[in-house]
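Cont'd.
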Amino acid sequence: MSRLKFSFLLFLILLWGSESTAEEEKEANEEFTEALLLRPLPDRKVLAHFHFQSSAPPTQTYGRHHYIFPKSIYQLVHKFHIREMELSFTQGRWNYERWGGFDPISSSNAKPPGVELWADFDVPQNQVDDSWKNLTHALSGLFCASINFLEHSTSYSATQWSFQSSSSGKLRYGTLPREAVCTENLTPWLKLLPCRDKAGLSSLMDRPSIYRGYYHSQRLHLKSDEFDTSKISSSGIVLEQTLTVVLQPNTFSGKKLQPSWSLSSLFGRKVTGKCSLSNSSNVYVQFQQNLVSEENESREKSEAQKNEILIHEGSHNNPLFALSHPPKRVIKEVENFQKEGSILYEYSVEDYDEYGPFELGLRWKVPVIWSCQQAPLHASRFLLGSGNERGAIAISMKSTRSNDIEIAGLDDEKACSLRVGIFQVVPWYVKVYYHTLEVFLDGESQATMDNIEKIHVSPSEDKVSPGVMEIVLRLPCSVKTAALTLEFDKGFLHIDEYPPDANQGFDIPSAVVHFADFVANMSFEDNLSKEIPILSKLQEKIPVRSYTEVLLVPLTTPDFSMPYNVITMTCTIFALYFGSLLNALRRRRGEEERLLKGKGAEKGPLSLLLSRLSAKLRGKQWEPPKPSSSSSKKSSVNYKLVAKVVLVAGIAIVWQFYYQ
Amino acid sequence: MAETEPAVKSKPRPIMRISLFLVSHSLLFSVVCCTAGIVALLILPLLAKNTYISENALMPGSASPMLSNDDASDGYRFYNRIMDLDAKTTIAGNEIPELIAEHIKELDGEVNYHKFLPISNKFHPLHFFLGPDAGIIQENFTCSSYGINTVGIIRAPRGDGKEAIVLVTPYNSTKITTGEALSLGIAYSVFSLLSRVTWLAKDIIWLASDSKHGEYAAVSAWLRDYNTLSFGDLKLQDEMCSPSISNGFRRAGTMAAALIIKVADSSMEFEKDNLKIYAEASNGQMPNLDLINIVNYLAVHGQGLQVRVEKIWSLLDSWWLKILGQLLELLGSVAKTLNPQWKFGIPVADYVEGSATLASSLYNQALGVPTGPHGAFRDYQVDAITMEISPKFYSSQRALFLLRVGRLIEGVVRSVNNLLEKFHQSFFLYLMTSPSRFASVGVYMIAFALLVAPLPLVATSLFSDASNSKPEKDEISSKSLPTFTSWKWLSAAKTVLFVHLWSATVTLLPYFISKIPNSTPSFNFLSWIELSLASFLFMYAIPGSFSSSSTTQPQRNEWALLKSVTIAAAFIGLCLMSVINFATAEIGALLLVPMCLTVLPLRLDLKEKPVRAFVRRACNVLLVFLGFPPIIFLLLKGALDGFSSVGFGDFWNWAESLWAWNSATYIYMCMVHLPCWVLCIRTLLHRC
């Protein structure tokens, strides 16, 4: 009995001990935060951006055991020595023209369709490729996706400066444009969250509603400086998970008015409180400041309207729209000369529970039109030419600004230039001739090197590596359109290299266009906002980046039943060849002639006819063969043969009739 | 060929024996083959199979149509607005594009205008087979000479934007007809539905093409710009002559299929609304049969339309087809009594209709001229058809009509949208005998193969005859025989070569003739003939070009060698053409093979009965007379359309349209058919 008591006591002590360590750990900053940002879009849609961030302190100080941070990710980082990694699953295209291309969300969350993965490793140069291959397999298992196809050296490439300013040479980049994204990829992603989708903001993720949207991109960004020996104070691993969806609120309002929506109408669910493990759990509603009322067309009036938002920011009786709840606070973006600021309304879901779920609604009062801020150039990419032999890739960039020449006019007007970086990976079977690179500015062909600041090309090698082109163009600020063309030949694949559904065509992954001179960030007045990860993320200075469309190149595909035909045909040819060869080898000319002379007499009626014919053909007088005794024997043999054939045919006919 | 040593009769190889047998019986063989070839062509309607949907992914009609009455009435309202616009103003032609653009914008579609200039139909001798080329754009133009296409694009939600489906509605911006406005209304109602649906995987492009300069020109201009770095990509805004919005040229990926929607103005002869499918593109290329199949399936089973493909109407009343049909029906019924499983007989009416359709299909493919704007798409390997719908309505039923046709188009778009791969499952080489029956290449090439098969045999037999008959007469030693014959062969080949060279100059002559200003077709045609004759005489005058040995020492068998080489050349030409355009080769073989095979010198004395000799000569002359392309063209045209409408210059117009459309038929006619005809005449007039 005492023994039992003792053990119970021990158990209690252990329990208490573990709890106390947990509390200690919490103090040692293992953190998780969740946030949701909602933004009405000009084309009557709503952007919802979920942002979850978990971070683990460095192993040296903290140890290897975590209670919030997902173990699989921690192991991933440690096994492959990942310095930074980003994986995104995307369905649909980000509409840069309507949804904007200059804000932090579009720059970092607008991704190409399919899967995109890049990772920067902290291993010696010769081990980078191995780490990459292992990483793709690990991720493939982790996310139920065919990321392992990125293992082949033909499908990934090294980038120099497109994803990071400093080129370490250890960054690998690969995309799978044809990967279908569905809930099987979302579930493992949600498993990384401490509350999954059982509590907190992630409980809003009703699968049908988030997959019904116009754009769906789930992203996982990982950053660790554990292996960086130069730094003294490392901050551990930061895992950032975002889900960006663009939804269409179903409304029955007229075509003029922007649709009003609420959280439950968008997602079909309500938030019943925060995830208890998260430090903060906020919902933000963002309004772009250049909302102008359609009714007031004069400039002054719209100015007034703009001020009105500011005036009425505290209350929710705004002239343009009404929010169902008063915000906890209003965060204003500092307006600068680059762009007009926007307004964030912050709500905290901490105060809500199952009995009073958080239900935010937005109702528009007047018809409103506005436009999102655009990247300096709008890039689109397309194929030129027709036919199965050759073609060209063209990237055309059009200036979106009528006004902002002074943006880059930080330096004086003359030297004003716009730096545009383009990163393009082309699979090896599209054989790009990089010397045919042509640059057109405002419709005029330019001497190519004039506008190129730096260029890095690694041509493709058949079945080994894809072609990669990284280029930084320096364009004059006044440029209206710029276009790049690259010619290519279409290669041939071996029959077993064709993917399933080869007749669809082959994809050229999206090109990345980035504007190094432009940073997409917001700057807020509050210092407080630095503490909330989503807000600090919005303030981070990242270059404006956009992706072009995926291209579909129709290649020549064989008729896949052709191997059968080829086999049949080659077999026939072989049979003919070997047959005649053997025949020729076996025969002896002298023997033949002697045989013929001996046989000359014994000819059946058919051969008689033939000989007569050939004689006629050759223009000779036909000589009837001398009759001999053996002819009758021969003919009797023939009759036997005929009799046999007749017999077999008769049996066949009888058989046929008997069985019918 | 045969053995050189007659003393030792070694047994030839079986394959040699068979060929020797065939060569020696070439006359019988050629008669049998030619007859069988013509018969095989005539019974093609019997052999045609029912169409079926080969690609499983298409799944036509598996979803119920979503196009509602509201959409249809939207389309009807749109139609009314266009008609109102037309009634009010017809000034610059910009109003309709602006109206369309405004409506597309309301539907959240992207819109842009595409301006183009017509391309003059010039004859470019070197541009044959070079594919879609940019022609010379006129130098002096005004704003009104621009055509303005309006392009609306719906981006598929969640789609990756790699592929697109194109809907084309041609209309004339200067004077819009009711039918064109209706087709715009149909396209609008479908477009407005598609802008709302969630199942789209491919983008939708609506091209309202301005057929001011012709339907084909507008579509091909747009396609050309779509596939090149065009003006719209390079210049943001062109201030001149353009409507208010024009932000560059918009694209939407690789095109999967294109539907051209046209509404014919009236139809009196049918009791149902009917749909006519045009599919022939340049040089006899056809869209994938699956595309026609889904349209046919959805139109017949979904919307109860009557589907037709083009047919030659005058053939429907021809007595000989009816007799043939009755004969075949009789044969079929006899066969059926023998074995109930033999079901190849079809009713006379079906046979006649099938033959008329088949003839039209064959003719249109052979012509090599696209039968509508869909031809422009085929140049870029996009499957496209034109659907011409003739409504049978009174004005109150127009909304209903819009609903039915809209549902049909929605169904087709939905089917194509289901497609993962591009069209490749079904046939590309086929002839239609009715909208739901086709003869595939495996069947219809039998006729051609049978027609062409005697040519090499007869050539060989003539050659061997010519080379063997010589030593019989003159008793020259057998050693010198091969050299002698090869010399003769060379002179005949030289003649053939020179005639072919001459035909190349004839091919190029229209280029110069077309530069004569203000000339009538008949004048052009006459001058073409005269110039050809002149060049022929010039060629004839060149010493050595035509076998001169005939003048010094007339040889009996020279004509045989010449005929043999002619036949060989015709064989090569026909086989080459069958690769480029099968239908042309088929029709060409029908004309060329009997002429080449039967032709004999008129003065040849075969010691036969005078009646038989006369028949032979008359037959030769008749066939050679028919073999001249203009004559057979004018005769056929007269037989089909009535002789009153036939003019002398028609052939020039026809040939002009052939070269304007870069048809390979023109090349065939001038460089294979014409020289063979000339050589046949030469054989005919040979001195024996």
